Amino acid sequence: MSSAAQMLTPRRSLAPLKEGEDGLFTQSWFAVCLSTDVESGGFAGFDFLGGRVIVMRDSDGRASVLSAYCPHLGADLCGGEMVDGALRCPFHHWRYGPDGKCVSTGSGDPIPPTAKLFRFPTVEKYGFVFAFNGTEPSFELPDLPRAPEGLVWKVGEWNIRMPVDPWVICCNTPDMQHINVVHGITFDREPHDLVQWTDHSMLYTLQGANREGLRLEFEVGIFGTSLYWQHGELGGRWFGFVAPMGLPRPGESRLFFAVAVEDDPADPDGTRAFLDAMYDLEVHIATEDLPIVEHARFRPGTLTKSDRSLARFLQYLREFPRDHPSATFIS
Ligand code: FES
Ligand SMILES: [Fe+2]
Q1: What is the extent of the structural domain holding 45?
Q2: Which residues have C-beta under 5 Å from ligand 2, the single-atom ion?
Q3: Per the domain annotation, does 111 fall within a domain?
Q4: Distance from the CA of 7 to the center of ligand 1, in angstroms?
Q5: Does residue 5 carry a pLDDT above 80?
Q6: Domain tally for the chain?
């Protein structure tokens, strides 16, 4: 083949599958809402995986993520109301409990055995309600290495939706070139050899300095295809940061932020100021990424030596299990 012909040969796509391709989504934990979005004994509807779910909270405060369409004739249960601890469909008043099972039909007819909503494995953590895309979780969400009772949190959702799948945002974490040139972090040594891989996570120690010359030492990582996790010290003070992502539909991410700092009862104003500063820092970092991510056509092509952790992460993504057991319930 001549060199000119070689130059015109289309490159093999190295991109991981897109979320929703072939009707499948990665089997990861996705944030569905803030914990504060649903009060005890209440419910609220959210877009998820290209469909619709409800988050219901029982009177004990336990959250359940359920498919939103009534198995009777498909009404959206978001238009219903809670009656005696069960969600009543607006159309014919069938009622559903937090486990998704129908507890009564409006007419008194016997309950058909198939009158069930899909109940996602549900966890509440860091101030968010998470649903796992699957019938059984294949991994757990990580804790921060500090006693929870000693922490204060600031939690929120970014008011901007990213026009990409969550895994594209996650690709920033193993992307050492990006961390250096966009976020201004100079590594002591590129940490490719330090990355610890499992089939559902990657973690490494980021050591270096920021643009202001401040020393950084953070543990950073990705869990599943939809959670950034970090902790370490800045200016001699510890903080933890978790950025869960939501997947309302293919090609769109919701981005949530949760910052934790250690409570100092002797200095509540200082604790609050540090918490606010770390939260603002993380929002600022996301803001640095926004104009790039918004306009990119993310397609891994010609990678170099500095991309070797990114290349491994792309392989991790390609091998990540995919499924969509709720497909016929939420759509
Ligand atoms: S559609 Fe819900 S009860 Fe009939
Ligand atoms: Fe980034």
Answers
A1: 30-132
A2: 172, 289
A3: yes
A4: 59
A5: no
A6: 2
